[in-house]
């Protein structure tokens, strides 16, 4: 496919992430093979496991930058940053639990596109600060260096 084959997007192109789901990578039994960057098969979780859904009530963003490495091969530097409108007990508890664990992440952007990142590390420290219109904000950050870009997800999640 050539760049000239791509059609212009119709309608708006809104930024941000609307839906965020996180699970420990170790809780995934298998993932179907993607075809041309699209994962249309199943993500199979261990019995009783589910993705934890987080309400993103301020902002979240994902970036993916292709890096060249002549010694080890090219890779994609991926970063997911999630900002919540206030610190609360649930966030603090989960932040402590989440340290040194690798995660699989599903996110849906504001245009309805869902992507799957099979392995990310929690890079964040618990931070609060003056943020949105004089209110405190709380943020998490995840990162990864992956051999392939994040996959578009159109498949299913099963146990």
List the total number of helices. 1
Provide the number of structural domains: 1
- Largest beta sheet, briefly? 10 strands, mixed
Report how far apart the termini are.
36 Å
How large a portion of the residues is in β-strands, by DSSP E?
over 45%
The number of E-state strands comes to 13
Order of helices and strands: EEEEEEEHEEEEEE
- Poorly predicted parts: 1-10
Give the % helix.
under 10%
Structural class by SSE content = mainly beta
User: What is the quaternary state of this protein?
Assistant: single chain
Anisotropy-based shape: globular
Describe the 3D structure.
With 159 residues, this protein is mainly β. It has one domain (15-158). Helices cover 6% and strands 49% of the residues. It has one helix at 89-98, and strands spanning 17-24, 28-31, 38-39, 42-45, 52-54, 59-67, 75-84, 102-109, 114-122, 127-130, 136-146, 151-153, 156-158.
List keywords for this structure.
single chain, about 160 residues, ten-stranded mixed beta sheet, three-stranded mixed beta sheet, about 5% helix, globular
